[in-house]
Amino acid sequence: MHSFQLLCSLLLCNALVVAAQRKLQKVPEQKEQEENIMWIRMPQTLSRGWGDEIEWVQTYEEALTRSRNSKKPLMVIHHLEECPYSQALKKAFVSSPEIQKMAQEDFIMLNLVHSSTDDNTAPDGHYVPRILFVDPSMTVRADLTGKYKNRMYAYEPEDISNLIENMRQAKTLLHTEL
Predict the structure, then answer these.
(1) Would you call the peptide bond into 129 cis, given omega within 30 degrees of 0 as the criterion?
(2) pLDDT tens readout for residues 10-52
(3) What are 57-61's contacts with CB under 8 Å, separation 24+?
(4) CA-CA distance, 24 to 104, in Å (whole number)?
(5) Largest CB tally within 10 Å, which of 50, 115, 124, 130?
C-alpha cells in the first residue's frame, strides 16, 4: 500500500511540473516600468524544441521498455543544440503537421543530445543529426535510412518527405512483423 501511495504522489508531482511548464509566466521588462510586461515560456524539458505536444522519454533504456510494452516503434533523434544542421532539421520537423501527428500517436519518441551507451544507435558513426527507428523487438531498422550513403541516418530539412515515408514504413511494417 505504501508503494501505491508513493507512486500516486510521484504521478501528481509529475502532472504539476508539466502543468507549470506549459503555463506562461509574466516577467517585468524593466524595474522602473512594471506596467510593461513581456511574456516568456518556461524552459523546455525533454522536447528540447522538437515538439512540445509530443510525449518524450528520458533515456534510451526507458524508450526500449516502452516500445516493447506498447508495441510501438521507437524513433531516436540524435542532435546537438549548437549544431546548425540539427537546428535546421528541428525547425523542419516541428513545421510538419504530419510528422508531429505521427510522433504523437504512433511512436515512442526520444531525442538525445549525448551518445547512448548502446552502439546499435550509431551503426555508421556518431554524427548529428541522425534519426534511427527501433522496432519493439529492439532491432534497429537498418532498412529505414536517409538518402546519404556516407551518413545513412542523416536527414536535412529538404529530406522531410523521406523522413515521413520512413515513419510510415516503420509503423506499417511493424504490424506485419508482430
Answers:
(1) yes
(2) 555 555 545 555 554 443 444 444 444 344 444 457 899 999 9
(3) 57/108, 57/109, 57/110, 58/110, 59/110, 60/110, 60/112, 60/116, 60/117, 60/118, 60/121
(4) 23
(5) 130
